[in-house]
Amino acid sequence: QIHLAESGGGSARFGESLRLSCVASVYSQQTRYPTYCVAWFRQAPGKEREGVASIDSDDQTTYSESVKGRFTISQDKAASYLYLQMNNLEPEDTAMYYCAAAPGHCAHPSRVGEASDYWFWGQGTQVTVSS
Question: Rounded to whole angstroms, how far apart are CA atoms 15 and 96?
C-alpha cells in the first residue's frame, strides 16, 4: 500500500549537521489517509529501537528528550516527503534511522511511541557521528 524510502544518511563529526529525507509512494487511492502519523526511529547496535520524532497530519510534533532542541521533523504533504534536520550531532546519535507511518492519529500525545504503533517502514539509512 505504502512504500517508504530513506536517504541522506552518512558520516558527520561532532557538532555537524545532517538532513534525512523519506519519500512515501502511495499506489492506491485507498491508502491516502486524511489523518496519519509519521515518525523517525533509530536503532544503535545492542539497543532497542527508539522513537526520535513524530509529526501528524495536523503538523503536531513530538520529540524524544535526547534530541529536543537539536532535531526538527517536518513534512511536505503535497510531495509526500518527511524530513529530519539533525543539528549539533553527537556520537550518541549514531544509529540506523528509519521512517515509519501509520493511519490515524499518533498513538500518544506527548511521546513518539513504540515501533508497534506504526504500520509501514523504510529500510533505514545509517548515520555515524564521530568525536
Answer: 19
Q: What is the pLDDT of residues 53-77, one digit of tens each?
A: 999 999 999 999 999 999 999 999 8
Strand partners, 43: 96
Is residue 15 within 8 Å of 88, Cβ to Cβ?
Answer: yes
Per DSSP bridges, beta strands 10-13 and 2-7 are unpaired
Residue 2 backbone phi and psi in degrees, to 5:
-130, 130
Mean pLDDT of 87-105: 96
Q: How far apart are CA 63 and CA 74, in angstroms?
A: 12
Degrees (nearest 5) of the Cα angle 83, 87, 91?
A: 110
> 19, 81, 86: which is closest to 55 by C-alpha?
81
